Amino acid sequence: MSEQPELSEFPNLKGVVPDISLDDLDELLGKLTAEELDELNGDFDPDNSLLPPSDRMKNQTDKSATGPFSRQKLLKWLEEKAKNEKDWELIKPYVGEKRGKAFKPKAEPKKKMTEDEAKEDTEWDDLLKEASEEELVDLAAVLGFHSMLTQQQYYASLETEEISGQFGGFKGVAKAQELKLMPNEPENKTDVVQSLQKLKDNDSSLKHLNLNNIKNISLERLCEFCEALKTNTQLETLEMASTAATDKVAKTLAKALEDNKTLKNLNIESNFISGEAILEIMKAINKNMTVIEFRITNQKPEVLGNKVEMQLTKLVEENPTILRFGIACEFPDARVRIHEKIQENNDELRKKRVGKS
Hints:
The protein has 13 helices and 5 strands. The protein is mostly helical. α12 links the parallel β4 and β5 (324-326). The radius of gyration is 44 Å and the shape is flat.
């Protein structure tokens, strides 16, 4: 390292800065008082980001530490101090004064009816006098005076039902409507064994197979249905919604779709299929490009995740034939891109149809 130049080498600084040698630094520090040493030790750079925050400024607190931080103790001390401190003395005491004039809105002049107008009778006066209360309720509903009607009368007027005599007059009491018992949906009466045999035999009469909501089908039987699709060339629509299918069934279905070239509609909603299995099915669909409708929404793992949704979006964008795709995406990017691709495929189909006609 180069030696530090002495101040004597700069003659222009003589008389401005005293000639101080660093060899006498201990002697200079010994001549300083305690206050001057404290001032010298407090010379830090608070903006120096290379120093830790605790070293950027000298500790200026002379009090001893009171112990570890206690939030409850601090709040209690602040509350007691606020109660014991006196309020600030006001230079001028508060006096409620009202200045200016109070605002008074101008009263609109009432239109006075002349004696001729008051005595003049119309045909409506006779009709209103002779009308019953139920008829007046109907008239209020027609004119839109809904604040004069009960809730039942209001909804009956929207549905153009007869109000008079059914819901009372202006003093009618709104009552709870009786619940209408709706019949349960009929059970799926599909013969599972017979349908499976037809599927294996490649029966031409079996175009639509509906297994929806059949809970007592075992996973092995569902896998048999999927394996039978490999050699079947007649089935066009397969519905397996709410059959408690798992990834085992989905992976078997994906392998079958790689060989099947006639299936057009596939519905496996409301099952227990994960995102990875859905991707395998979509890859199999993209191999032959024959499925035009695929519905997979409402699976047990409701959230597929960003990674699965983006991979699924990419697979859909690679398919120019799919027209309907049922899925609930969590992320807007995947949802919008899938919607745009489905719309694009439908537009292309419409252009071909219009061109042929």
